[in-house]
Amino acid sequence: MSLGITTVQLGKNGYNEKSLENIKFFFKTRKDLKVSVLKNYIRGQEELKALKEKMLADLGIHYTARIVGYSIFLKKWKREMRKE
User: Fold this and answer.
1) Looking at residue 83, what is its pLDDT?
2) Is 84 inside a domain boundary?
3) Can you give the pLDDT at residue 42?
4) Pick the residue with more confidence: 83 or 34?
5) DSSP 3-state assignment of 73?
6) Is residue 14 in a domain?
7) 57-61 contact pairs (CB < 8 A, 24+)
8) What is the pTM of this model?
9) Structural domain count, the chain
């Protein structure tokens, strides 16, 4: 069953400038995005939480995120949702 959410996958190349460009590109037309993180890139939940915080810092204050398993669900808001 598909929820209609666009998925970006992070694998052995990890999170880099190209990954950030892809994420920003998808947010031009969407407000929700799923980032699926493969286990060969992240070994544990603490590393996954650090990755989530890095993504949010790179994207800005109009984004929120939550972790479910080895996926990070990002959401774009019209107004400021976080304080830096």
Assistant:
1) 60
2) no
3) 87
4) 34
5) strand
6) yes
7) 57/84, 58/20, 59/20, 59/23, 59/24, 59/27
8) 0.86
9) 1
